[in-house]
């Protein structure tokens, strides 16, 4: 039954993508973030994302809807990062394996660029946020309920055969999405809707804790600090956070507390020391090879050449060291600049749209995007999710939001009458749009 339903939904998305390619973008995002076909038995290997992506690209050429090809610092940096990855590809240590991952990353980044071309309205942005929330919220809410029901005795895992299959990866995805849920809650009017979203956010937090991921715990703390600092009443905010935090943590078993305690004693934890060994390997590799080692360098052969302990082979477990080892110092610089610019764009939305009824929602979006980015920056320091779609969708929301705000301001100025007054009357009519005579 679920296979038939999924085929019907995907068929509708493909058909709509030819006429309204922005629907194709939402469908692509849903497929790449949630991977709903992995929840079926017969459709797991079907190339649904490729079908939706192809239909969207055709629709991009055919549609009469508005398209925005304007350049900004974010899409320029993303394109430069893509070009750099194309340059480094021929210098890959394991070219065949690297080439396969390179194709996947190029597809993801291409669709992110297409999303910035096609999405332009408030409706588009809200639907994109809902798509991200539903895609990850499905696993997070279910995982949170599972954690509560089992007393945290078992770990929460992500969907098989996806970027977020591991407990650490799904935990970071859940952490990133919680602020987006808060943004949607701020736009709701009905009390039952707000209460439902509050319950869902608490269950998401429980799922992140139930993953037993130390990186997720640090990411939650970082986001809580940002939210507390931004709050209007910090004392009340601190009390609420402490009460909620203590309540959630009280549900976790002794095993969880023992694992979290290794954050302080990392030098005695084999897993933590393995990560540090991988980080040093990435640093040595980047020093020795200007173009990095290409994708898929986390192998015994590469560790034998560059790691302090060649026998302790680990994945990168860090978005920063992953990019450093695979793309070199230039790639890491572009990666850091890209998300730094996204942070500033989200901050601009938070401040410039604040206090105006018609744009307050955009200020809320900018604020919550920064909270999500804080979680990604901290939690990502211990997880290998450098190229996954979700953080780049935050980029899309920031860029489209700034364009929407700029267009709103331009239209408002265009519609307002321009009144010319002598300079000595400027203060008297300061509430009007005044251009004093020379």
UniProtKB/TrEMBL annotation:
Domain of life of the native organism: Bacteria
Domain DUF5935, chain residue ranges per copy: 1-185
GO MF annotation: an example: ligase activity
Mode of membrane association: Multi-pass membrane protein
Annotated compartments: Membrane
Alphabetical list of Pfam families matching this protein: DUF5935 (PF19358), Wzy_C (PF04932)
Transmembrane segments: 43-63, 75-95, 126-150, 170-188, 200-229, 235-257, 319-344, 365-384
Main location class: membrane
InterPro entries with a match to the protein in the record: CHP03097O-antigen_lig-rel, DUF5935, O-antigen_ligase-rel_domated, WaaL-like
Keywords: Ligase, Membrane, Transmembrane, Transmembrane helix
Domain O-antigen ligase-related: 200-336
NCBIfam families in alphabetical order: PEP_O_lig_1 (TIGR03097)
Protein name as it appears in the record: O-glycosylation ligase, exosortase A system-associated
Source species: Pelomonas nitida
